[in-house]
């Protein structure tokens, strides 16, 4: 993996080429119109497929580009992008404006497209081969973007985060999605939980099992029951294969709590590389 503090060369604008300031390493984010991101690139020539990973509540993108998931991704030839959430007024830690019923200071879906466009201008990446993943609240944002705009990225991989109540009534169309969750997660339980009252109503996590029913409906799957099961190794995996052409849906459980489990990045990238559909 090579961090990109000395890598960015230039941005292509409508006018003449202008030198870009080096950016992307853990200490120097790349700035966009509405936010910032960090990036780690693999060795060798591009264009590189992309893993975009959204941090959880209180996280930051800088440390992530030096983490195990970034190392795994870049070792396989992927650019690893870690965008930064915003700190809300009155708060001290970054998060994401993920809940459709509580709009925040930024349109996060538009921001992520801004990140991809900026990274494509600065670095040799291939936006048509892009996996959007996220942990906890980042996984929730990943899920909402997949539901509202399934074609915004090639595929989606939320970890330990899903929809909140009230659940969406439906999603826009077929999607390629791998949801991973800890069997013993008490922070974001599989059934969800109430966090607090906001404006006189429950601010409550959703039910992951209900989320899977929404994904099956969006993908037009023939059965409620999964078509394929895999119980070897560290993950319990169930896949729906008799669904809309080009779609993919898998639900993965692991024996753990609220975390990104060891081996997740290898499993997720293996899954991504087997997909058939746009960008694959």
TrEMBL record:
Signal as UniProt keyword: yes
Domain spans labelled Phospholipase/carboxylesterase/thioesterase: 49-194
InterPro entries: AB_hydrolase_fold, FaeB/C/D, PLipase/COase/thioEstase
Entry's Gene Ontology molecular function annotations: feruloyl esterase activity
Annotated localization: Secreted
One GO term (biological process): xylan catabolic process
Keywords, ordered alphabetically: Carbohydrate metabolism, Hydrolase, Polysaccharide degradation, Secreted, Signal, Xylan degradation
Keyword Secreted: yes
Lineage top rank: taxon: Bacteria
Major location (coarse): secreted
Cellular compartments per GO CC: extracellular region
Signal sequence, start to end: 1-19
UniProt cross-references to Pfam families, sorted A to Z: Abhydrolase_2
Protein family per UniProt: Belongs to the faeC family.
Function in brief: Involved in degradation of plant cell walls. Hydrolyzes the feruloyl-arabinose ester bond in arabinoxylans, and the feruloyl-galactose ester bond in pectin. Active against paranitrophenyl-acetate, methyl ferulate and wheat arabinoxylan.
Protein name, UniProt field: Poly(3-hydroxybutyrate) depolymerase
Species of the source: Roseovarius mucosus DSM 17069
